[in-house]
Amino acid sequence: MPDKIAMTTPVVEMDGDEMTRVLWKWIKEILIEPYVDLKTEYYDLGLPERDRTDDKVTVDAAMATKKYGVAVKCATITPNAQRVEEYHLKQMWKSPNGTVRRILDGTVFRAPIIVKGITPYVPTWKQPIVLARHAYGDIYNSVESRVEEGGAAYLVVCDKEGKEVSRKLIQNFKGDGIVQGVHNLDKSIENFAVTCFNYALEHKIPMWFGAKDTISKIYDHRFKDIFNEIYERDYKDKFEKAGIYFMYTLIDDIVARIMRSEGGVLWVCKNYDGDVMSDMVATAYGSLGMMSSVLVSPDGNYEYEAAHGTVTRHYYKYLKGEETSTNSVATIWAWTGALAKRGELDGNKELTAFAKKLEKATIDTIEEGKMTGDLIPLFRAEGVTPVKLNSKQFLQAIAEKL
Questions:
Q1: Residue 271, pLDDT score
Q2: pTM for this entry
Q3: Which of 37, 155, 254, 373 gives 20 to 30 Å between its CA and that of 357?
Q4: Distance, C-alpha 111 to centroid of its chain
Q5: How confident is the model at residue 1 (pLDDT cuts 50, 70, 90)?
Q6: Are 314 and 324 in contact (CB under 8 A)?
Q7: How far is Cα 382 from Cα 380, in angstroms, rounded to an integer?
Q8: 253-290 CB burial, b ≥16 within 10 A, e <16
C-alpha cells in the first residue's frame, strides 16, 4: 500500500450517539484510516459525556471549530423526558446542534445525494433542491413557561439600562396554558442572507425565500426586509449577470412552487421551517440517509454532518446482536465534505482528491446494485438487480470499489 495521505491541520471530530456512533467508527476504520494519516481534534458529544461535563464538551467542540475552521459531526441525541429517564441525565440538555449553530452563527445547506436508479417520489424533480436553513434563534433558543389559570403573560422589552420601553399583553389565561418567547438578531439575519446569496451565485441557481410576514408583521417581516435590502444593494446586478434571480414570497406559496418545480433551486428557510422541510425534501428524494449537510459560518468556518438522527431502532437491534442494514451515505458525506474542505483550505490536493474518490466509490457501489435495505424499494435500473447488504458489508463493498 502507498504512503498514507498526510494532513497538516486537524479536523474537529464530534462523535455522537447510538447506531450512527457505531457507523462512525467503522467508516474511519474501513474507508479513511487505511488511506489517510487522519488528524482530528476529538470531542465526544455522546449523551453520557455531555451529561458528565454539564454540556461543556459541546461548547468546547464549537470553539475548536472556530479555531481550526473545519469540523465533522456525528448525529447526536437531543433528549426528551423519556431519554432523561433512559440515560439517567441530570437535566434535559438542549440540542447540541443548536448549541454549535448558535456559537458559529451559520447557515445550514442541505442537498440530496443523487444516484442513478433512485427516482424521487416527486416525479417532476429532475435536479437537486438545495435547502438553506438559518441556524440561529427562533424556537431553538427560546424561553418557555407553563402558565396557570388566571395568570397573564407579557412581552416586556427593556433598554440597555434596564428601563422598560414597551409592554404588550400576550394572553390573559382563562385556563392553564403555555407561553414561549423567541428572538433573532439583525446581524444574524444579515449573515444568513449574505451566505445564501453567495451560495446561489457560486452554484448559479435561483434563490427562493419564504416566511409568513402577513401574519408575523414585525418578526418575519424583518427577515423579508433585510433580505430585500441586501439583494437590491449588493446582489441584484450580480444575479442578473449570472442569469439567476431572487424571489421572496410567502412560505406556503414557496411549498406549492417547490412541489411542482423541476428542482435546481436554493430554497431558503427560517430555522424551524428548514428543520422540517429538509427532512421532507430528503425523504422525497429517496432517503434521509441520502442528504448532505454543512453549516457555513460568515467568518469561514465549516461543520459537516449527516442530516438524519441516530437511527435508534437499528441501535437497539445492534445491541441485541441482530444484523442491521443502516444507510451510512450521509455520514460518509460528512467525512468527505470535511476532508475535502480541509484539503482545499490547506492546499492539500491529495486529501481533496481522496474525498471525491470516496464519494464516487460510494455512488458507484449503489449504482451497481449493492446497497442498504432502505434503498432497495426505491432502486430501479435496467439490468441491475439490487442486493441488500448489512451495515458493515456496505462499507466493505465501498472499500473494494475505492
A1: 93
A2: 0.86
A3: 373
A4: 9
A5: low
A6: yes
A7: 7
A8: ebeeebeebebebbbbbbbebbbebbbebbbbbbbbbb
